[in-house]
Amino acid sequence: xxxxxxxxxxxxxxxxxxxxxxxxxxxxxxxxxxxxxxxxxxxxxxxxxxxxxxxxxxxxxxxxxxxxxxxxxxxxxxxxxxxxxxxxxxxxxxxxxxxxxxxxxxxxxxxxxxxxxxxxxxxxxxxxxxxxxxxxxxxxxxxxxxxxxxxxxxxxxxxxxxxxxxxxxxxxxxx
Amino acid sequence: xxxxxxxxxxxxxxxxxxxxxxxxxxxxxxxxxxxxxxxxxxxxxxxxxxxxxxxxxxxxxxxxxxxxxxxxxxxxxxxxxxxxxxxxxxxxxxxxxxxxxxxxxxxxxxxxxxxxxxxxxxxxxxxxxxxxxxxxxxxxxxxxxxxxxxxxxxxxxxxxxxxxxxxxxxxxxxxxxxxxxxxxxxxxxxxxxxxxxxxxxx
Lengths: 175, 202
Prior knowledge:
The structure holds 2 protein chains of 2 kinds. Chain A is mostly helical. Chain A has helices at residues 15-34, 37-53, 64-80, 85-96, 103-122, 125-135, 141-148, 152-174. Chain A has a domain at 10-83: Rna Polymerase Sigma Factor, Chain: A (Orthogonal Bundle), CATH 1.10.1740. The termini of chain A are far apart.
């Protein structure tokens, strides 16, 4: 989709093309933090507004993908500070429950997901961030490291610790 | 542990497979267009900001508008269904009066003196500075019929009584004729001439 107002930046980067290419990925990044579709869409919109504001310097950005993910990630974290996690997680947990199971079992399952999400939130910040970014599978270790400003080995170690800790805590709830 | 792994895996899948809402790209492009237009016009930039196009803000604004509209409708529907204070007291008096029929009222002992104020329109503020709203309200709440006065009840009784003599009272011509006839009969009976009467008195 071509926009006339974006023709100035066309020689360097076309913001409309960036929307087309990255909006879904950025939405998932924001959604992994916020667990709300509306909030996540707001974040994606904010990202591209920022792109528009810096469109003259876009040509100097080395890795556009990581740069955009980092903006979306930081905006989502910033937005989450203003929201209560329980508020967002309740509807997300319900959305994960299968529609074919009976109502009482569905409620029990939703509570299990909600408690697992609480455990995710209780993880140390660095571990939680690595876990959420790695959940997307669209990002490799190098990209996660680029977004979080850490080395790849640190990311791998954090991810391993996060999974182990989460498994232990969620498993404790089943015992 | 297997259950824990399954739960975690389902959670991660839920995050990974999230699909953006329909029309998200179009909305983002529209917001960018608005932003671009606003940045070229400083006044517009202040008035129309892209955050107005955000789904959460737009939803909040729509809810606020719906709430305001329903409030206005509710206020319109529940406008004072009873008349203003003066008219209310008048109607209450009227209701009290209407509950008793004129005939029965007449049979009851001494009748209260007529309250002249009862028929007077709602009092207007002094100074002649009457607002149009007051007039509208007064027209919207016409004073209800008041109980009959003593004279009116008397007239009714006379009219419906069927007594010719009483009915004649209502007609001045008939009354004068009747009076003249009575005087003539009186004079004839006592055989007194008017002139003689005057002489005797003197």
